[in-house]
Design brief:
- The protein is built from eight helices and two strands.
- The chain is mainly α.
- It has one domain.
- The chain has a two-stranded antiparallel ribbon with strand order 1-2.
- It is elongated.
Length: about 260
């Protein structure tokens, strides 16, 4: 009679944690990464995608620490994976935050600050122009296969920062904070041509109002500003792609640098 397969509790616990910890990092990443974390993506799809990636990537990983899952060390590793995955997804969202900031700046300058609607992604009211630019950025992101490179970066993160119960260094968090400060700069750089053009137009209308007081600048100022802003936005559409592509590549390079900064 062939021997009966026997599994003890230690082996079962090792199998569970070997799969669970990579799965938690991937699920945290999917919950914060661009495109994958959108509210239009069902939660079931996100969960199944994390399960699929864990099933494919887990056999290629280095041995994980033999630590009971419900022990303090096991809970600490679980918290680490949640923080690492969420931070990686956040670093990829910085470019989209800059694009949304551009829409906020330009919409305010064009007089479209009242044109807002509820955005399920941010959980609050968002300007229509900011939402439009965000959709364009998502399309550019997908058309350039950045979503595939993003998943590749996620798989390589286990080689850069293996699963361990060692404390995380603070250098990675400092690097992420510095990168977050770049959001305002990139947003202003993208919005600068439109803002400069609209400011020049407002200055010209102000001078015209002083020269000819009978000219009602308040009745024609808003339509002129709106049409000029839309015309400039249409002209600058061709430059949004070349502006965003290096930023997308830089966000992908930020993830390995962030993970290296967490290693002691």
């Amino acid at each position: 009679m062939p021997p009966i397969l026997s599994v003890n509790s230690e082996q079962l616990s090792l199998w569970v944690v070997t799969f669970l910890w990579p799965f938690v990092r991937m699920l945290s990443f999917i919950g914060t990464a661009p495109v994958l974390s959108e509210a239009v993506v069902p939660r079931t799809v996100k969960l199944l995608l994390a399960l699929l990636l864990a099933m494919v990537i887990t056999p290629t990983l280095a041995p994980v620490p033999v630590v009971p899952m419900m022990s303090p060390a096991g809970v600490w590793i679980l918290v680490q994976q949640i923080l690492i995955g969420a931070a990686m997804g956040f670093s990829m969202r910085l470019v989209f935050a800059a694009v949304q900031a551009t829409g906020e700046y330009v919409g305010l300058q064009m007089g479209l600050s009242f044109a807002t609607f509820f955005d399920p992604t941010s959980g609050g009211n968002t300007m229509v122009l900011a939402r439009l630019l965000n959709v364009i950025a998502v399309l550019i992101f997908l058309a350039s296969d950045m979503h595939l490179l993003m998943i590749k970066t996620l798989a390589e993160s286990f080689q850069t920062l293996p699963i361990s119960d060692a404390p995380l260094a603070r250098g990675g968090w400092a690097l992420l904070a510095v990168a977050g400060g770049q959001v305002v700069t990139d947003g202003l750089m993208l919005a600068l041509p439109l803002i400069a053009s609209l400011l020049s137009l407002n200055l010209a209308m102000g001078i015209l109002n002083r020269v000819s007081p009978q000219f009602s600048i308040f009745s024609v100022g808003f339509p002129i500003t709106l049409l000029a802003g839309l015309g400039m936005l249409l002209y600058l559409m061709q430059y949004i792609g070349p502006f965003l592509m290096p930023r997308f590549a830089a966000s992908l390079d930020l993830v390995p640098a962030f993970l290296q900064g967490l290693r002691r």
